[in-house]
Structures are given as structure tokens and as C-alpha cells.
Amino acid sequence: MSARIVAPVLMGLFMLALWEGLVRAMAIPPYILPGPILVTKTLVSDWGTLWPALLVTLTITLQALLAAVVVGVLLALLFSLSRWIELSLFPYAIILQVTPIVAIAPLIIAWVDDVNVSLLICAWLVAFFPILSNTVLGLRSVDRNLLDLFELYGASRWRTLLDLRLPAALPYFLGGLRISGGLALIGAVVAEFVAGSGGRESGLAYRILESGYQLKIPRMFAALVLISATGIAIYLLLSLLSHLLLRRWHESALKEE
Amino acid sequence: MTLVRVRDVSRVFANGVQALDGASLDIEAGEFLSVLGPSGCGKSTLLRLIGGLAEPTAGTIEWPQGRPDLGFVFQEPTLMPWSTALANVALPLKLRGLSRSDREARAAEALAGVGLKGFEKSYPRELSGGMKMRVSIARALVTSPKLLLMDEPFAALDEITRRRLNTDLLELWQRTHFTAVFVTHSVFESVFLSQRIVVMSARPGRVRSELAIPAPYPRSESFGTSADYAALCRLTSAQLSEAMAA
Ligand SMILES: Nc1ncnc2c1ncn2[C@@H]1O[C@H](COP(=O)(O)OP(=O)(O)OP(=O)(O)O)[C@@H](O)[C@H]1O
Ligand SMILES: [Mg+2]
Fold this sequence. Notes:
Shape of chain A: flat
CATH class of the largest domain in chain B: Alpha Beta
CATH topology of chain A: MetI-like fold
CATH class of chain A: Mainly Alpha
Order of helices and strands of chain B: EEEHEEHHHEHEHEEHH
Structural class of chain B: alpha/beta
CATH superfamily of chain A: MetI-like
Structural class of chain A: mainly alpha
Mean pLDDT of chain A: 92
Bound molecules: adenosine-5'-triphosphate, magnesium ion
Largest sheet of chain A: none
Order of helices and strands of chain A: HHHHHHHHHH
Distance between the termini of chain A: 19 Å
CATH topology of the largest domain in chain B: Rossmann fold
Largest interface: A-B, 22 and 22 residues
Helix content of chain A: over 70%
Oligomer: heterodimer
CATH architecture of chain A: Orthogonal Bundle
Strand content of chain B: 15-25%
Number of domains of chain A: 1
């Protein structure tokens, strides 16, 4: 096994052991800081509560990511077709992006009756911008000479889009997708917190909030572990997708041969 | 027979730069013509105008026998990195709506013609600089164009590769009878390749002088070391210096 895997795993085990050791040595009570062994036990014993919560969060995250891809790519295509549309819409996309989601989440949750829909909107708001801006950049980063070549052979706009602009934009899009995957999860969790403070039940973040109120700190940690694991899994899956799509031709997928 | 008549063509860019100022030039069907000039004198601009990729600000470009099929080779290989060599070469045929089997057969033939048999499935990043340039030439030739426009195609290559590609290009030209317009800033290259050299002045570019290179084809490496060649290079060099001073 390569050092790239061994080193962080060893480091992680060491930190966990240190954590467990400190908790025991200093006799820290579990409602202040549970040790990793207790957290693991809770993860197993509370699986019946945590698993459905994880499914809720995961569903919202994936739906938001999908919506971000669809809207982001469609908007990017629209922008590449018309400078006017881009000029008039892009500033608003930026405003949506820079407005903190915690600030608008209460409004959205108040306006939209269905909790799941409101969470989805929040997660989508956070996730779509990297896809949009990266895809716009990609669609523009086409080799000028290749564009000339397509013109020389009388290619239609549609053909140029399909055979030239889209493939050229693919690596940029995938880069945006990887960022958006993590952001969709963050957006979903933040929105769940906001909704949860208003007493609305939802996914993992709601369980964290609830555990906090009930002083079930080990369960809170278990939920936290699940969120992190989900984030890592999303990132790894999207990286794998990117690698599979680009490995034959793109510099980013080059490995020393 | 004249293929193209370039008459008093000027080109001013949006930022006010005048690249060409009344350039005139006739291109004869079947000839190998080099356009020689210092960097920035408007050679690429002229070639793009002939290729129909831009419009002249003033002047005309006439095609007495109608506008033929043409091929364009850029200074860089300009390949699609996501496509194999074969798919890159087949692109012009695809854009013209040929069926997949037809275009792949012809693309394979064109690749073989530039000495790349066996590399059909390679991606551009798996090819050397010289091989990429060959793919680019194969792509330009795959439609069997009457006119091949080349913009310093070998400028970025090393001397040895460049020489090989020069000889191969001449061989292709003799075999397939296209009209070749070859832009370069190398005196040696232009003398080695062409029947006729057009020398351009510094920007704003116009055609300063013309000279014929009467040496017979096929031209081999030995032509490149002959006294005739040296004398012609000296002559061309003098013309170029004159054009730049003017
Ligand atoms: N799109 C453009 N907009 C503005 N100016 C341009 C543009 N393209 C070229 N020019 C200018 O026109 C002049 C001629 O450019 P051109 O590319 O035709 O030169 P060239 O003879 O091909 O040079 P080189 O040998 O270095 O390739 C240059 O001064 C260049 O800066
Ligand atoms: Mg040039």
C-alpha cells in the first residue's frame, strides 16, 4: 500500500487513541466529550434513528446537486449563446452566491410549506454557483483555432456546441461539480439546522440539534461522524467520476508512466 | 491558371492596428508558394483572409474558378485532446456529414499518408510534437482540398523533425497536386520548399517582392546542401532585409 493511504490512516488511528486516552485519563464525562469508542457504540445502538436521518439528508443533498447540475449547465449554455442574457443574469447569480445561506434560509423555510422542498432550495442555492461559473469558463476556453477550423468546414452552431464547446468545457464542469457536491451537503445541513431550530423535523442536522437539547452528546457525535463520512464519500465518488471521464485525454488525469 | 487573386487587401483591427496595407498577390493553381516576412507583418492575417476566416477591411479576394475546397494548417497542431488521432483527422468529413465508416476509412488513409499508420487510436497527448503536426496535416488533406494554407506549421519543431516534415510535405504535394501556400519566417525553409516566394514588408504588411526558385523537384536533402541552394538563400535573405528596411 502506498504512503498516501498508510500515512493518514496511521495518523487518524493515533489521534483517535490519543482522544480515547485523554478522555479516560482525565475522566471527562460523556456529556462533555465522549470518547471514540463510545461514539462508535452509539453509532451502532442508535442506528435505527440515525440511518433514516442520514437518508433524508442524503436525498436532499443529491437532489440539490442534480438540480444544481441541470440549472447550472443550462444557464451556462444560455450565457454562452447570448452575451446579453449573461450580462443581465450573471450579477444576480453572484448575489445569490455571496448571500449567506443562514441569512435567507429562515425566509425560504417560512415561505415554503413543505420542509423538504425548502431544504432542497437552500442546498441548491449553495451548490449551483460553482457549476455555473466553471461551465461558463469552460465553454469560453475553447481553442480559437479549433473554432476557426469548425467555421472553415461550415459547422453549424449546434455541431460546434456538441463536438467542440461541450467536450472542452467538461474538465471545468467536473471541477465545479466536485466543489458543488460538498457545498450541497453543507447547504442541506445548514438549512436543516435552521429548520430544526424552528422545530421542524428533518435529517441528520436535526438529530444533532435534538441530541444537543437532550444532552445525548455521544449521539450528536455519531451524527457528526456520519455527516463527515457522507461528505468524504461524495467527494471521492465525484473524483472517481472525473477521473474516469478524463483519464484518456486530460492533463489533470495524467499519471507518470 | 490563377486560383486566387488578392487585390490591394487591407486589414485594420478593432484596436486600430493595421496589419495589412494594400497587399496584392496571385496564387497559381498547383504551385508551391511561400509567404516570407518578419514576425508581426501580417502573414497570419493574410492567410486567414484567404481562408475566409476574416473579411478584409478594404480590397478584394477573387476566385476566378470559384472558391475551391481548402485545408488549413495552424502554427500549433490544434487537435481536439479528447479525440483520437483518427477522430481528429475525420473531423472535417464529419462536419460535412459523411457516414462514420466512410470518414474513418478516409481518415485512416490520410493518416497512413503522413506516415502515422498504427497510431489511429492514440490520443494527442500520447503523440510527439512532430506526430501531432502530421495529424494536423492529415486532417487538412483528408478532404482532398485544392488549396492547402499552412501558417508556419513547423515553427515550433526541432530542426531534425522540421527537415523530415519538409521533405514529406514536398513528397505529398508532388503526389496529390494541391496548391500550397506556406507561411514562414525562415528563409531556408521557404527556399527549400517553394517554386515561388513572396516577401512581405514589416507591418503594415504588403507584398514587397517576389522571386522564383527554379530548382527542380523532387528536392532531397542534397538540394539543401548544394551551392545553388546557398545562393538562392542569400538572394532571398537580401530581399527580406530590403523589405524590412523599406
Ligand atoms: N485579433 C487581432 N486584434 C488586434 N490586432 C491583431 C489581431 N491579430 C493580429 N493582430 C496584429 O496584427 C499584426 C499582424 O499579425 P499577424 O498575426 O498577421 O502577424 P504574423 O506575420 O503572422 O506574425 P508571426 O510571424 O509572429 O506569426 C500584429 O501586429 C498583431 O499584433
Ligand atoms: Mg503568424
